[in-house]
Amino acid sequence: MSSTTDQTEAEIYNSNLDLSTLPHFTHEELRQYNGTTNPKIYVAIRGRVYDVSQNLNSYGPGKAYNRLAGIDGSRLLGMNKLVSDDKEDWYTEDLDDSQNAIIDKWVIFFDKRYHVIGTVG
């Protein structure tokens, strides 16, 4: 199956999604899905949990975006960095409109590529 087909399927799958019917993770539970503790790799943005397990080249252990594996990386994405500051990775209340717009664009990007499999928060 081509990458374009996968992207289209994820976008269609996520378009009619009812988040209230999906499993809910705590932040601690989500941390287990980092590709090391558990072979599944989940990345969350704005509380939506995506299964990115098929993209080991980007999210697998030792890879560029593995820092996002097992967390809600909203803050990191909004700040355009992969190194945490002193706040929780999901905390976005202090970000400005521009940073929040960046996070919203990441949600659109992920919605087109990966299935939402749960929520976190």
Automatic annotation (TrEMBL):
It comes from the Eukaryota. GO terms for molecular function: heme binding. GO terms for cellular component: endomembrane system; membrane. Signal peptide: none annotated. Residues 25-121 form the Cytochrome b5 heme-binding domain. Belongs to the cytochrome b5 family. MAPR subfamily. This is Cytochrome b5 heme-binding domain-containing protein.
